[in-house]
Amino acid sequence: MFSSRVVDFGRLRSFLTFFKIGRVVVPQNLFCHLKCVRTLTLRSCGLDEIPAEIGRLLHLRHLNLSGNPFITLPEAICDLYYLETLNIIFCDKLSCLPERIEGLVHLRHLFNENTDDLRQIPQGLGKLTSLCTLGGFIARSNSDDLAILKDLNQLERLVIEIEGEVDFGSAKLGKKINMREMFLFFSDGTHFIETPSCIESMEPPPNLEQLALVGYPGAKLPSWLVAKSHASNLTKLVFASPHNISSLLALRKLSSLEELKLMEVEELECLGKEFFGVTKALHENSRDALDTLSNSESSSSAEAVAFPNLRKLHFEDCNNWTNWEDLSEDDEEVAVSIMPRLEELKIQYCHELETLPHRIFRKISSLKILDIRHCNKLRDRYSDKTGDDWKKISHIPQVHIF
């Protein structure tokens, strides 16, 4: 319980509570005393209900209600005219947002990730044109859900859960020049032989820097992902749990990419050397390849070198990955630059992978950190830090094997 006799709540600018165990009963008169509060945090307090009196906090800028079990938010919350941040992350029983949400005209950040029961997004959300962060949005098949986003041109970070074929054209993503991060989650049970038409036809935000594709259902990656005109600013890609991907070779065309994370790629059984740009064409004309690859900063090099700017490569939970193809002796004679800027390689929970590509590692002179965790066969092979296999990777400055 809270008591205004202990603290002069009327002068408080911030009020924060954090409870992981137990419950907090918030008295209705509490909000009558917090007349000047700008920041209110009631996180993980076991709140079954948010009192309507919260709408009296007219000076409130930042409201954190995350981790509570309430089912609805009071409509009165929409009276918070100056509210800039609303955090309802992990409110997993919340079923809907207030219908009058357009009243939050100054809202900039709506953090609503991990709200699994939140299935209805009110149309009024489309009027919040100051919104920069939208942490959870559902796009359903045969609906106009995405049209809600068309005027939200200040968005910088957007998370969309996609259920079936949807019309991305109505979202006007290509006009969102401020968008830097986009996360696309595809629902289970949807498979496509080629690229899903809704994704292929999508015009992506022009200045996108970070992209996550989770549960991607197509056999091929969308053409815009690897097109220079659209992917020129993309520096980080997370590709997780694809359903039907047939090849990862197109990823090497991402010349601006600095960080690549591949997670739960069940289709990955053998990672071929082509992934690193070692192809027959290089064997046929190694002299020309040397001329082309000698300057990794040139535009022609960006075409020829696979992942010319990649600094971090991360594999995780690739359970069927057993073979990482190494270079042959003939390959070593070919003038080829392999990931010339790679500094960090992480491999986690890839239990079936048996050995590392030693010749490829020797070609990556920039590699500083090799981090191997929970990979049983690799740990058995290298963790004792003795023998011929260890010597083949011991030149790497930092090797961590757990």
From TrEMBL:
Recorded hits in Pfam families, A to Z, give: LRR_14
Signal peptide stretch: none
Q: Report domain Disease resistance R13L4/SHOC-2-like LRR positions.
A: 12-350
Listed SUPFAM superfamilies: L domain-like
* Keywords of this entry: Repeat
Q: Does the keyword Nucleus apply?
A: no
Question: Is Repeat included in the keywords of this UniProt record?
Answer: yes
InterPro entries tied to this protein: LRR_dom_sf, LRR_R13L4/SHOC2-like
Give the superkingdom in one word. Eukaryota
**Which protein are we looking at?**
Disease resistance protein RGA2-like
